[in-house]
Each structure stands twice: as structure tokens, then as C-alpha cells.
Design brief:
single chain, Rossmann fold, two-stranded antiparallel ribbon, 35% helix, globular
Length: 208
Amino acid sequence: MTESSFIHRFEPATNAGSPPLLLLHGTGGDENDLLGLGRMISPGSALLSPRGRVLEHGMPRFFRRLAEGVFDEEDVRRRALELGDFVADARHRYGIAAPVAIGFSNGANIAAALLLLKPDVLAGAILLRAMVPLSDPPQAELGGKPVLLLSGQADPIVPASNSTRLAALLSEAGARVDHKVLPAGHQLSQADVTLARNWITNVDAEAA
């Protein structure tokens, strides 16, 4: 498994103190989609942004789904492990620490799967409009990893009960979860950016 197996963008850090970010786009996005968001949330961070390798009607995704909100869980597991290998290779190639994932929608779901399947890959995660990725997840030990989960109150894709279950699942695995429900739908708002920026600044300060 080589890092070149994912088309990706990498931007080196301009501030050595900022955590590297793994940017994971939503359905139909690509490796350029979240670069601006990453810069807004954590200016100066190294940015690692892969393109999902699954195509759904020509739109890149990180794993297959059987229907809206119904995941091919075998594919979720396989793709999460592939992504974990990619991150490990990219860390070696670019000389970066374990990144904080910033995932939106499908990207947030693969980030949640990565936390549960390969906990050592990520230093933490910002999950934007995420769902429970696996109905029968493995026993993970997240050892206090910080996770920010931002859900939309009027999200037509992610039921409130599902995001609440994801928060509980990650908490039970030992993550420090901060779950906020915003007056928004599935799309991102300025509040997402502000909350994520404040959260990562505080997490960074605690780690220093």
C-alpha cells in the first residue's frame, strides 16, 4: 500500500505549532474541496487532503453505500483500513505528526470509522454531519482523544438519534466528545467554522 494509491494534495505547515489536518470531503467532492475550510479552522497547519476512491454515479466517495444512509459496512471497514495505511505512509513521506481529521458528511463517516478501527491513526477529529459508520463496531480504546461532533438540527440525511448514538459510541470508547447541534441542515454554516476553530485552538492549548 503506497501513499500514491490516493490522489491527494499536501500543503506543508507554515506554523510549526499547529496540528496537521487530514481533510476528508463529502460525496462528489475531491482533494481540493476542504483546503479552504482547513485553512480557516487552523491557519498554518499542514494539510493532507485525499480524494475518495469509490465512485457513485461518477462522484467520489470514501466508501460504498447501498442507499441513502445505508452503508456497505464491509466496504467501510476495508476502505477505512486503506485510508489508515495512506495516512501512515503520508506521515512518513511528509514528516508530520498524527493528524486531526476534519471530515464532512461521507468524509466524517470514514473518519469516525477510522477512529473505531485504527485509533492510532488520528490525534482527534472534527466530524461535520457524521453518522454511525458501523452497526457492530469493534471495541476501540480512544484514550481521551478529542472529538468535536457538529450536527444539524434540520439535517434531512442524519437523524438526530443517529448522531446522538455516534457521540455515545465514541464516548464509550474513551474519546472526549463535544457534541453540538446547530440550527442548520446538512450543509455547513459559519457557526461550524467558528466552533471548529475555537475547539482546535483549545485542544492545541491543552496539548502544549
